[in-house]
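Design a sequence for this backbone.
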């Protein structure tokens, strides 16, 4: 399957795996990329995103998008097992 899109010149596309998107809330990512990205600061922005993602992933007190969804699933599983 192929997808086509017209991307304006100077727009930036960020491709990410679930490792980033499961740990980093989109508002955090939006804040980092809301300032102008260009060839000079692209690497710096990507390092900033990576470091923030790692920090969040290692923080057992931070409720990442993945942790929130996992807890919803665990609640469902707890009710399922408790009912039997």
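Sequence:
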């Amino acid at each position: 399957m192929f997808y086509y899109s017209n991307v304006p010149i100077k727009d930036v596309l960020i491709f990410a795996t679930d490792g980033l998107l499961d740990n980093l809330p989109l508002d955090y990512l939006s804040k980092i990329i809301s300032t102008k990205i260009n060839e000079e600061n692209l690497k710096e922005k990507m390092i900033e995103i990576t470091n923030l993602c790692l920090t969040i992933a290692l923080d057992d007190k931070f409720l990442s998008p993945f942790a929130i969804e996992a807890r919803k699933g665990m609640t469902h599983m707890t009710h399922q097992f408790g009912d039997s």
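The CA atoms of residues 1 and 38 lie 31 Å apart.
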